[in-house]
Write a structure and sequence with these properties.
Rossmann fold; NAD binding; N-(1-d-carboxylethyl)-l-norvaline Dehydrogenase, domain 2; 18 helices; alpha/beta; oxidoreductase; 44% helix; single chain; 6-PGluconate_DH-like_C_sf; six-stranded parallel β-sheet; binds uridine-5'-diphosphate-xylopyranose
Length: 433
């Protein structure tokens, strides 16, 4: 099939490459010439394991091209819209200007029978509005909504082998077109839910709201554990054995961040309020508040460890991305903690295998080192905030030799506490005794 993908950010670049990998003929379109140039050269504009290999092989096969000119979408019959929907500058609602601009730009290039497929995360009601606009333009093209659930770090796999496919359609023919696009996933048994526009839009935000709630739930338990001497990790293990609860996404720590969960729950609350149903999901404000408190908690623990004398102390911050296997620092709890400690006068040295360039762009005032040992050397305090595998493999005895610190704060509850204690460290977890 001939596909176009409008918007080559995280979602769009991965989608374009994955669709070409599945054998489709794909043109990726973006207004940013720098991004298009990089993608044409087979380079991903961000760190995503496996993506460069797929880009290079799909470009070499001739099935994947990139352009800044939307007229090159003319040949395609299915047009994916994968542009960003960031948080508005003046509030929590999603900013839809890029979605609207993409539809406007596409309209002159549409033919009867073409299908526009929205993949961006949008407030419920957007697809209806856009479908009316497409119908009014009179090309005979239609619109479907097909949310994406990819996780950073696993984006290519999640796109090629999704957990489920969700189609919001108004015409059975559109579901058939999407079946053809995703034939390989459907062939391997991926469940497929065909529904209306608002359900498809809501599935995406509801899934992210649920995941965020699950994390804040366990972090709320961590807060209780902290004043009672309970261990939240053991608690999560125990409740996680109940199949109705499940152990995944019950890792307490410094909380969630990234380009999706925080902004999506805020936009969802804003949309529900517009719809006169703010009270239905008012609890998501609490989910957000619990999450932000955990960052504060790490800062408090650092102050305690340094006995209030933070000024001029060297603090080694291990990890700056919002999670491992990503270079993304958007709404990163780790970066927030580093900035707050710097604000208190600490000499913060941040290290991270992939995130330093992005972090430096946002916060040039912090010190950065690519070398973990350098960050740790003579540090008065060690704070782990992103659980990269290399930090889990650190030898506590060796770190003790090179750092001045006696305390390690494990903001992700992922280190082997017993091993660190055995090497003479005061180990401080999040909600662990
Ligand atoms: C998320 C959703 O998982 C994905 O389905 C959606 O399409 C986009 O948003 P992503 O942002 O890549 O994906 O990250 P995810 O793996 O969900 O982690 C989100 C945040 O939660 C990270 O900061 C992570 O460290 C944190 N987290 C996750 C916890 O604090 N505890 C957990 O138990 C799990």
């Amino acid at each position: 099939m001939k596909l176009s993908v409008i918007g080559c950010g995280y979602l769009g670049a991965v989608h374009a490459a994955a669709m070409a990998e599945l054998g489709h003929d794909v043109i990726g379109i973006d207004v940013d010439p720098g991004k298009i140039e990089q993608l044409r050269a087979g380079r991903a504009p961000f760190f995503e394991p496996g993506l460069p290999e797929v880009l290079v092989s799909a470009i070499a096969s001739g099935r994947l091209r990139f352009s800044t000119d939307i007229a090159h979408a003319d040949d395609a019959t299915v047009h994916f819209v994968a542009v960003g929907t960031p948080q508005s500058r003046d509030g929590n609602a999603a900013d839809l200007r890029y979605v609207d601009a993409a539809i406007d730009a596409l309209l002159p290039h549409l033919k009867a029978g073409d299908l526009i497929v929205g993949k961006s995360t949008v407030p419920v009601g957007t697809a209806r509005r856009l479908a009316d606009r497409v119908a009014d333009a009179g090309s005979g093209a239609r619109l479907a909504w097909n949310p994406e659930f990819l996780r950073e770090g696993y984006a290519v796999k999640d796109t090629i082998e999704p957990d489920r496919l969700v189609y919001g359609v108004e015409d059975d023919r559109d579901a058939a077109v999407l079946d053809e696009v995703y034939a390989s996933a459907i062939g391997s048994g991926t469940p497929r839910i065909v529904t209306n526009f608002p359900t498809a839009e809501l599935v995406k935000v509801a899934a992210n709201a649920y995941l965020a709630t699950k994390i804040s739930f366990i972090n709320a338990m961590a807060e209780i554990a902290e004043v009672t001497g309970a261990d939240v990790t053991r608690l999560a293990d125990a409740i996680g054995h109940d199949a109705r609860i499940g152990r995944r996404f019950l890792n307490a720590g410094v909380g969630f961040g990234g380009g999706c969960l925080p902004k999506d729950i805020r936009a969802f609350v804003a949309r529900a309020e517009e719809l006169g149903r703010g009270e239905s999901i008012a609890f998501l404000k609490e989910v957000d508040a619990i999450n932000l408190r955990r960052r504060q908690r790490v800062v408090e623990l650092a102050q305690e460890a340094l006995e209030g004398a933070v000024y001029g102390k060297k603090v080694a911050v291990l990890g700056v991305t919002f999670k491992p296997h990503s270079d993304d620092v958007r709404d990163s709890p780790a970066l927030d903690v580093a900035v707050q400690l710097k604000g208190l006068g600490a000499d913060v040295v941040v290290t991270d295998p992939e995130g330093i360039d992005n972090a430096r762009l946002r916060h040039p005032q912090l010190l950065y080192s690519n070398v973990t040992e350098e960050a740790l050397r003579h540090a008065d305090l060690v704070v782990l905030v992103t659980e990269w595998p290399e930090y889990l493999g650190l030898d506590p005895a060796h770190v003790k030799e090179i750092a001045r610190a006696s305390t390690i704060i494990d903001g992700r509850n992922t280190l082997d506490a017993a091993a660190w204690k055995a090497a003479g460290w005061r180990y401080v977890g999040m909600g662990r005794s």
